[in-house]
Amino acid sequence: MKASLSDQRSILDIQNFDFTTSTLSNKANTLPEIAEINSLTIKQNNARDLRIAAETELNDVKRELARAEGDVEQIVTRITRDEARLSSGNSAAKELEQLQHELGTLGARRSELEEVELEIMMRVDGIKARIDELKNQESEFALEIANLEIRKENALTVIGADLEAIAQDRARTISSIDKALVELYEKIKSNNNGTGAAALVGNQCKGCHLTINTVELQRISGLPDDELVRCEECRCILVRDH
Prior knowledge:
Layout: H1 5-29, H2 32-88, H3 93-175, H4 179-190, E1 197-201, E2 204-205, H5 214-221, E3 229-230, E4 237-240
Parallel strand pairs: 1-4
Antiparallel strand pairs: 1-2, 3-4
Helix pairs in contact: 1-3, 2-3
C-alpha cells in the first residue's frame, strides 16, 4: 500500500491523539476522588444503617420504659390508696396491720420497679447519645463527600476540555488523510490493543518495543518513501523517520 509521507506522519499524529485520549479517559475513571468518595459512601451508609438500627432499638426500649412507668404508677396508686385507708383510722386493728404489711411489701416492690425504670432510662439516654454520634458521622461524611464531588467535577471539567480539544484536532487531521489509510489504521488498532501506528526509531518499533532484525531493516530502508511499512511483530503501521 502506498501512502504519502505527509499522510504517514499524520497517521502517527492520530495515534498520539488516541494514546492521549486513552490516557485521559483512564485518568477520568481513576481519579483519586472517586475512590475516596466510594470509601466514604460506604462509611456513610454503615453509619446510616447503625443509626436506623439504633432508632428501632430506641423505640423498643421506650415501649419497655412506658411499661415500667405504668408498673410503678400502679404501685404508687395502691400505696396512696392504702396510706389513705391507714390514715383514716376507720379500719379494724387486724386490717390496719394487714395494710401496714402490704405497704411494706409495696414499698419494696416500688423500689425494685424504680430501679428497673432507672436502668431503662439510662439505656434510653445511651441509645440517644449513640444516635446523635451516628448522625454527626453521617453529616461529616456527607460534607467530605460533597467537597470531593466538587473536586472531582472540577478535574473532570479540565479533562473533558482536553478531550474535546484532542477530538477536534483528530477530526481535522483525519480529514486530510487518505481514507484507505485511516481505515487500515483503525482496523489494526482495534485488533492490537489500541496501537495502529508507531514510529520506527533506530531498529526498534515503538509500538511493541521490539527490535527489528538487520535483514528486515535493510529491506525497509530499500523501500520507496511512500511505501507503507508494517511491523513484523505487532503488525502496526511503521512510520519511518525520513
